[in-house]
Amino acid sequence: MKILYSAPRGTKDILPDETKIWRKIKKKAIEVSERFGFSEMIFPTFEEEKLFIRSVGEETDVVQKEMFTFLDSAGRKLALRPEGTASLARAVIENGLLNEALPLKLFYIINCFRNERPQKGRYKEFYQLGVELFGSSLPTSELEVISLAKMFFEELNIKNLTLNINSIGCSNCRKDFVLKLIDYFKEHENKLCKTCKERLNKNPLRILDCKEEECEALKENAPKILDNVCSSCKEHFKTVEKLLKNNNIDYVVNHKIVRGLDYYTRTVFEFKTNELGSQDTICGGGRYDGLFEELGAKKTPALGFGVGLNRLFLLLKDKEKIENYCDLYIGHISENAMLKATKIAQNLREKNIKVQTNLLERSVKAQMKYANKINAKYSIIIGDNELNSNEIELKNMNEEQTKKINLDDFESEFLKFINSN
Ligand code: HAM
Q1: Residues whose CB falls within 8 Å of the CB of residue 302, separated by 6 or more in sequence, listed in order
Q2: Does 378 have pLDDT greater than 90?
Q3: What percent of the chain has pLDDT over 90?
Q4: Span 266-294, pLDDT tens digits
Q5: Considering only CA atoms, which residue is closest to atom 10 of ligand 1?
Q6: Closest approach atom of ligand 1 to CA 86
Q7: Mean pLDDT computed over 195-215
């Protein structure tokens, strides 16, 4: 068959076998977030482009190169969300949620869009779990969101993740550090990769997380932010470390974690894996105490993280096999039998039993083959003989066992039978 259309590059169809794992991930995300007192928010897939420019930052890769933007019929410039934090902050301000009891704890499961070069673990449309805590400037909030993320991964049985933490200082101390950084890299400018030469003028902090070989070497001797942050940022970071240790959360301090979005202040963190090649960050987040002011609202400390659900899925998919199954397959081989079969199916589905019945013109053999394929636990085949004798044979598909049941009482007998097995 000639395929006329394929999915756009960088997007993925999620197939029926895979949605089971996706659902498990989403269910766990909701369960763990709610355990920590976070409530779900749903907000639009697109926003005014200006919102992202203002919050994510004009000079970031996301805004400069990766946003999908379009004009609506009234000429308004809109963008598909490249992430959730900016949209949620907008929604929180607009709906007056900061006037309610603080801290405000929200989570979301959303699709995001970034026009990045596709590769394993990197897509143009991808999914995120976002968890955001508004209104607390205390390091206990770092502990709260980091331990939520950790619990989520552990309960999905994802091991071997390394928590990397760093502080990028506040708006005051970062300015001086950035000047130092510019001085250092200016001295070695000719050794920087092409992108970092541009970053030197536009977004020097990002040089610290460049993966190019030539920049990696230079970074080793670059000034470290943590050595340069102000005493209050240092104190904050020390307390975060103390709380993590106290709660047995292993971490490494990684001076190269600076994050790719402009709104961050103080603590930043990432959970990384060594199983996915270069797209190794499963979760990224941090504090963004200046964002609300930047968006015109009152100053509100905030922090949170985003988990890349596609990457989580890649880690889980070879380990998990969640089989489709059905409780009962009802085959039939005559018109009258079909009437009886569909009736039984309807009655049992109303009682929450997973039932499938024959929807094609198939022989008994073909129907049994299909029942096997869909992993039916039990099956019955109704024909005129069964209708006449008012007796049906219930077959356990995994064992060669059968059980005779009165056809008129089938539904109640079957319910009793599976409840006792
Ligand atoms: P981010 O680091 O840009 O942060 O994205 C968070 C996670 O989303 C990444 O660690 C990665 O797992 C996943 N991700 C990002 N881009 C892609 C892509 N193109 N394809 C597949 N997965 C991807 C944020 O978005 C922040 N809003 C997180 C945050 C929330 N910070 C504070 N609160």
Answers
A1: 89, 132, 133, 134, 135, 287, 288, 289, 291, 292
A2: yes
A3: 89
A4: 999 999 999 999 899 999 999 999 999 99
A5: 283
A6: 27
A7: 88
| pLDDT higher than threshold 90 for residue 323 | no
Distance (Å, whole) CA 307 – CA 329 = 39
- The span from the CA of 86 to the CA of 378, in Å, is 51
The Å distance, Cα 400 to ligand 1 centre, comes to 51
For 70-103, what is each residue's pLDDT tens digit?
Answer: 999 999 999 999 999 999 999 999 999 999 999 9
pLDDT per residue as tens digits for the range 43-74: 999 999 999 999 999 989 999 999 999 999 99
Choosing from 38, 52, 83 the residue with most ligand 1 atoms within 8 A of its CB, the one to mutate for a pocket test is 83
> Which ligand 1 atom minimizes the distance to the CA of 283?
10
CA of 249 to the centre of ligand 1 (A): 22
Whole-angstrom distance, CA of residue 232 vs CA of residue 239:
11
Instruction: Specify the pTM.
Output: 0.94
- Mind listing the domains of the chain with CATH numbers? 16-170+229-317 (3.30.930.10), 326-419 (3.40.50.800)
Looking at the chain, the number of H-run helices and the number of E-run strands are 16, 16
Tell me the C-alpha distance between 385 and 253, whole Å: 74
The 8-class DSSP code of residue 122 comes to: B
Tell me the C-alpha distance between 88 and 95, whole Å: 10
Pocket of ligand 1 (CB under 6 A): 83-85, 114, 116, 121-123, 126, 128, 130, 132, 260-261, 281-286, 304-306, 308, 310-311
Cα torsion 167, 212, 111, 66 to 10°: value is 110
Token pair of 277, please?
Answer: 């090649």
User: Could you please report the per-residue DSSP string of 18-45?
Assistant: HHHHHHHHHHHHHHHHHHTT-EE----S
Q: What is the pLDDT of residues 169-190, one digit of tens each?
A: 999 999 999 999 999 999 999 9
